[in-house]
Amino acid sequence: MKADLFSYNEAMTHMVEQTAQRNDMGWCDEALERLKTGQVAKIRPRGSSMSGKVEDNELVTVAPITKPLKVGDIVLVKVKGTIYLHLIKDLNNGRYLIGNNRGGTNGWVKADSIYGIAIRIQPASTPTPIFKKTATAGASETESSETENE
Questions:
Q1: What is each CA distance from 8 to 2, 22, 121, in whole angstroms?
Q2: Torsions phi, psi of 20, nearest 5?
Q3: The domain over range 2-125 is classified in CATH as 2.10.109.10
Q4: Which residues of the chain have pLDDT under 50?
Q5: Using CA atoms, how far apart are residues 148 and 40, in angstroms rounded to an integer?
Q6: How many angstroms separate the CA atoms of 55 and 49, rounded?
Q7: Which of 29, 35, 45, 87 could bridge across to 116 with cysteines, CB 3.0–4.6 Å?
Q8: Which residues does residue 134 pair with via DSSP β-bridges, in sequence order?
C-alpha cells in the first residue's frame, strides 16, 4: 500500500508540474531569445523533477551549446511541445534521451531541440548583492551597485 501511495503522489506531482509548464510556457521565453542570439541567460525553473541536481526556484545560468553534449548534462530542451530543464540520459545516433532526476524520461530529441546547457546553479536562498564595498584613496566607502537582472 505504501508503494502505491508513493507512486500515486509522484504521478500527481508530475502531472501538476506538466500542467504548470504547459500553462506557463513564458517561464523561459526571454532565456530562449537570448540563447538564440548566442547570449547566456538565467532562469528559475519550478518543480521537483530535478531535485538533487536543481531544486525548485534555484537560479540556473544556461549557455548556448558550444561543445558536444554528454550523458548527465542539464539542458534547456523542448520535448513533445513542452520545454524542460532536464538531463540528457542517453545518446544514440545524434539523438538525445531526455528525462528528469527522479527516473522519468520525456523522450528522444535531435540536437536542434536543445536550446542551452546549464553552466551554473545558484541556490534559491543565496541573496543577490545590492551593494559592494570599494576602497578609494586610503578610505573605504559603500557605493550602490546595479546587479544583473535575474
A1: 10, 21, 30
A2: -60, -40
A3: yes
A4: 2, 16, 19-23, 136, 138-150
A5: 12
A6: 9
A7: 35
A8: 141
> Grid cell 537560479 — which residue?
59
Phi and psi, residue 132, nearest 5°: -130, 150
C-alpha cell at 135: 576602497
How far apart are alpha carbons 45 and 116 in whole angstroms?
14
C-alpha cell at 88: 540528457
> For residue 142, what pLDDT is reported?
36
DSSP letters of the chain?
-HHHHHHHHHHHHHHHHHHHHHHTGGGGHHHHHHHHTT--EEE---SSTTTTTS-TT-EEEEE---S---TT-EEEEEETTEEEEEEEEEEETTEEEEE-TTS-EEEEEEGGGEEEEEEEEE-TTSPPP-EEEEEETTEEEEEE-PPPP-
Tens digit of pLDDT for each residue in 79-119?
Answer: 999 999 999 999 999 999 999 999 999 999 999 999 999 99
